[in-house]
Specification:
With 148 residues, this protein is an all-alpha fold. It is 75% helix and 0% strand. It has one domain.
Length: 148
């Protein structure tokens, strides 16, 4: 008796596709909505209120753009976050000199969005492989049934 693998392929493909979509949605939303809004705040008349608003948006990144995942390139981010958090808490002004640091935070967010989208693509490709496996399984099981 041959075990029917078709259900495994179907469930695997669906689960991986759903996971991929869930991983990709934050990155897509960030790329299409949040990041352009932040760029607009940074490039307009850079008054303190707009820079503060940009920082508040940047301070709450999506899952793949978290600032708690430090590497060599982002080693100084912890200091920037502490400094800007203190400014927000104490109602201090942001200056045009801070735009460089805000752009660094935006760059880290963009990298996280790219990672999110690439992860989604990876999972979608895994799902496609599951569908290919399902098709191969169907073809071989038909051949097996017709030639016992």
């Amino acid at each position: 008796m041959k075990f029917d693998d078709r259900k495994i392929y179907v469930y695997f493909s669906i689960a991986v596709l759903v996971a991929g979509i869930l991983f990709g949605l934050p990155g897509i939303y960030s790329k299409m909505v949040t990041e352009p809004a932040i760029e607009k705040l940074l490039t307009q008349d850079a008054d303190s209120q707009k820079l503060k608003q940009a920082y508040i948006i940047l301070r709450n990144p999506h899952i793949f753009a978290g600032y708690d995942r430090f590497d060599e390139a982002g080693a100084g981010i912890e200091y920037i976050l502490k400094e800007f958090d203190n400014r927000v808490a104490e109602q201090k002004e942001f200056t045009t000199n801070d735009i460089l640091y805000l752009e660094l935070l935006l760059q880290r967010r963009q990298q996280g969005s790219d990672l999110s989208i690439k992860t989604m693509i990876y999972f979608v490709l895994l799902s496609v492989l599951g569908v290919i496996g399902l098709l191969i399984e169907k073809k071989t099981s038909k051949n097996y049934e017709s030639n016992p």
